[in-house]
Amino acid sequence: MGYYAIGIGGTGAKCLESLIHLAAAGMMPDKKQELHVLFVDPDKANGSLERAVNTLECYRTFSNDTQLKQPDLLQTEIDSVADPIFSPFDDVDDNKPVLEKYLGHAGLKLADDGAADLFEVLYSKKERITQLDKGFRGHPSIGAAVMAQTVLSGDGPWKNFLAKVAIDPTPKIFLAGSIFGGTGASGFPTIAKLIKIALDGKPINEQIGGALILPYFTFIVPDGKDADGKGTDEKDELKAKAEHFLMNTQAALQFYQNWIMGLKNPVYNAIYLMGDASQVAVKKFALGGGDQKNAQHFVELYAALAAIHFFDNDGTTDGADKTPQCFRLDRSNNPPEWKDMPDGDGGVTIQSKLRQLYYFSIAYLDVYKPLLDRQVSGNDVPWSRDFFEGNKIPLKNARTERSLNNVRDYCEDFLVWFANIQHSKDDDGKFGPIVDFNLTDIVNRISSDNAMRCLEAKGLNRLWRNMCSAKGKGDGTHIGKFLSALYRNCEKIR
């Protein structure tokens, strides 16, 4: 059995970003099982997607470094192809694809007038000629047509991902995407159905689950400007519109109600629905590309927990009928608190796991890494002498420095994600505290060389004493012994 996660569109990518961090914190049900990830987005330059892929690379670089091996951190092996992004336009020569050209409307008119007329009825002129290089513009009907034609025939990342699923006797596949936009809304039902078709007749017992994200943010596009803020004569340019989110969601939920309950062999075994009524306002809306980089949000953390719940279960009822289940994730407080986390024990597990990783990241970036960078040898710091010189690991060595930087890169990525998760409410609210900090503190800590300030706070002085008395003992190899000791001692900080 393996775990397979597909993030569809910008929201889906952000959900996988949260899942990767939870895997780092040891939240996966079976850490011996590989997690295979794939991002699906026609807009490969999407800023949120780029950030999620960077998180994946930071994780994989750390976990694959043989000098950093230890039994606690980043124990789930995350597998992906060299390019983990599938775009339905990968094989299109034109870098400005439009639906009319992509589906061969001109040839259709010559070959079959009836089919061409139907195409023109189903899609407005604007939908047929709008460039799709930045996504499906909040129109899932466009995305569904493109996805249906490309997913099973797609080469590269998609073909490699599906090949791994096809040789796994019991794959657990989880999809995440928004219900109210274009890419996620079109891909969530279409890709799951196409996976079922591709696996039909194979001797495997797949389970498919998904997080369907309801509206949790909003935005305003200024009048008389396009989505990039530039002047335009077409005020009604084809794009996602926040005022349509709830209407789109209502229609989509009716579709899913009929689709799931009306099928003899349902595509999904479990669907998790989540959103946020007090929607955060995105201060800078972008049509797509690198400017579309919205801050991380606690709803995406919910989606990652839903994936973990699904991987740990099959999402179905007991009995032969295996009726598909729908889960609604709710909270009792506004702003939400850690006890609202759907992890099965009132948030205790996720709070403790993330707290430990938070303290490890702060201690490493603010204290231990700066001291290691400044030393020629470990003679002046007991824990450095024990863990590095005592284990024959040279401090001033290109490989050692590269490995220490790999840890740094992941810790910085995690802290920025974590800070945004805790501040993903509006300006007057924030997530119930797991630790007392704000985003400014995080930035200052990352860039600070003042080790004593960190040592004097939150019991980190006790961590220093414990590290000095560890005598170079830790579970792992090379630098992994040091990381293991530091991480385990961070669990004791309160």
Secondary-structure map:
Elements: E1 3-8, H1 9-24, E2 35-40, H2 47-63, E3 78-79, E4 85-86, H3 99-102, H4 105-111, H5 113-122, H6 125-129, H7 140-150, H8 157-166, E5 172-178, H9 183-199, E6 207-213, E7 217-218, H10 245-261, E8 270-274, E9 280-281, H11 298-312, E10 325-328, H12 348-374, H13 382-389, H14 398-422, H15 439-447, H16 451-455, H17 460-468, H18 479-490
Parallel strand pairs: 1-2, 1-5, 2-3, 2-4, 5-6, 6-8, 7-9, 8-10
Helix pairs in contact: 1-2, 1-11, 2-14, 4-5, 7-9, 12-14, 12-18, 14-15, 17-18
Task: Describe the structure concisely.
The protein is an alpha/beta fold and 494 residues long. It contains 18 helices and 10 strands.
Description:
With 494 residues, the chain is an alpha/beta fold. It is built from 18 helices and 10 strands. The strands form 2 sheets. Strands 1, 2, 3, 4, 5, 6, 8 and 10 form an 8-stranded parallel beta sheet that branches. The protein has a two-stranded parallel sheet with strand order 7-9. Helix 9 links the parallel strand 5 and strand 6. Helix 12 packs antiparallel against helix 14, helix 12 crosses helix 18 and helix 14 packs antiparallel against helix 15.
List keywords for this structure.
alpha/beta; 10 strands; single chain
Segments where pLDDT lies below 50 for 5+ residues?
224-235, 426-440, 445-455
Structural class: alpha/beta
Backbone CA Rg: 24 Å
Give me the strand/helix succession.
Answer: EHEHEEHHHHHHEHEEHEEHEHHHHHHH
SS element count, helices? 18
Percent in strands: 5-15%
Distance between the termini: 37 Å
What is the approximate shape? elongated
Largest sheet: 8 strands, parallel
Overall average residue pLDDT:
77
Q: Helix amount, in percent? A: 40-55%
| Beta strand count | 10
